[in-house]
Amino acid sequence: MRVTSSIVRFAALSLGLLSAVAALAAEEARLVESINAYRAQVQRCAGQAFEVLPPLADDSRLVLPAAGGAELQQALGRTGYPMVSAQAISLSGPRDAAAAMAALQSHYCQVLLDPQFVDIGVSQAGRDWRIVLARPLLSAQLADWQAEGQQLLEQLNAARGQARQCGGQAFAAAPPLSWNAELGAAAEVHSRAMANGNFFAHRGRDGRTPGDRAELAGYNARLVGENIAAGLDSPRKVVDGWLASPGHCATLMNPQFRDLGAAYAVDPQSDAGIYWTALFGTR
After folding, report:
1. How far apart are CA 45 and CA 37, in angstroms?
2. 8 A C-beta contact, residue 152 and residue 52
3. pTM of this structure
4. Orientation of helix 2-39 relative to helix 97-107, angle to 10°
5. Cα 222 to the chain's mean position, in Å?
6. Is 90 exceeded by the pLDDT of residue 8?
7. 158 by DSSP, 3-state: which?
8. Is the dihedral of CA 92, 98, 99, 103 positive or negative?
9. Fewer CB within 10 Å: C terminus or N terminus of the chain?
10. Which residues, in sequence order, are CB contacts of 57 under 8 Å at separation 6+?
11. What angle do CA 186, 192, 194 make, to 5 degrees?
12. Comparing C-alpha atoms, which of 272, 282, 283 is closest to residue 54?
């Protein structure tokens, strides 16, 4: 009877441990969701305006022990993450994801809104948290900007061909976009400006807006829209990121747009390494 009783107690302890682990995992997932929701809106941080950003991808290789003090580069080397840049944030005290998010917004908003980071890992141990944001090595072999712009057009048209929900807004399938060389040239100019100038914004350092750039390239627009991305090394990843971001998704699904020009530019000295621009238009 004592053996049976021990087995029952052991089973109860195991179930309790599993429940605790599940609760921690749920809070970690909630924090990732909160960070991505924060990035999905225009924000002001440290007196600076930040553009809407695609969500960070949850990567298990970035989930490091919350209470661990291992050097970040060595720790990520052991997990096999091909890091170009990374930053770890350690918090002690927040009891749940909401409290952790409040602390992050208060003290680390610039890290959360840094466009170079594309992946995230979160771990929690009691009231200790570790949040790792990172950018991996560019792995794709890209063709010239026109060829990759055409690939981006194909991916966008495939996305527009299906009805979808962009946040709280429902979109029916939209007509395909046509390639426009003038918009392509304007997109290349802006991608190159972001890469060489190491910034991420719709308004260029020269003060020009997407509409200004389209007009300067010779495109007589009735309607212009623009999506930008950074740190992603393929058209597929770029479009997936935009589809997961309500604002970007709404732009690419807008049935009023008819034309597209798109381009990427690379500068190894920039924070994000690679920058993309998709310029949507209707004459």
Report:
1. 15
2. no
3. 0.87
4. 30
5. 30
6. no
7. helix
8. positive
9. N
10. 118, 119, 120
11. 105
12. 272
70 vs 257, residue with greater confidence: 257
Amino acid identity, residue 45?
A: C
Q: How far is CA 275 from the centre of its chain?
A: 13
What confidence tens digit (pLDDT) does each residue in 120-168 have?
999 999 999 999 999 999 877 899 999 999 999 999 999 999 999 999 9
CA dihedral 100, 47, 186, 268 (to 10 degrees): -60
* DSSP annotation of 144: -
Report DSSP letters for 42-111, one per residue: -EEETTEEE---PPPEE-GGG---TT----HHHHHHHHT--EEEEEEEEEES--SHHHHHHHHHHH-HHH
Q: Do the strands 128-136 and 119-125 form a parallel or antiparallel pair, or are they unpaired?
A: antiparallel
Alpha-carbon distance 102 to 95, whole Å? 11
Q: Any residues with CB less than 8 A from the CB of 192 and at least 6 apart, and which?
A: 263, 265
Cα gap 35→100, rounded to integer Å: 10
Strands of 128-136's sheet in order across: 57-58, 119-125, 128-136, 83-92
Q: Transcribe 15-53 into DSSP letters.
A: HHHHHHHHHHHHHHHHHHHHHHHHHTS-EEETTEEE---
Summarised one tens digit per residue, pLDDT across range 182-237 is 999 999 999 999 999 999 999 999 999 999 999 999 999 999 999 999 999 999 99
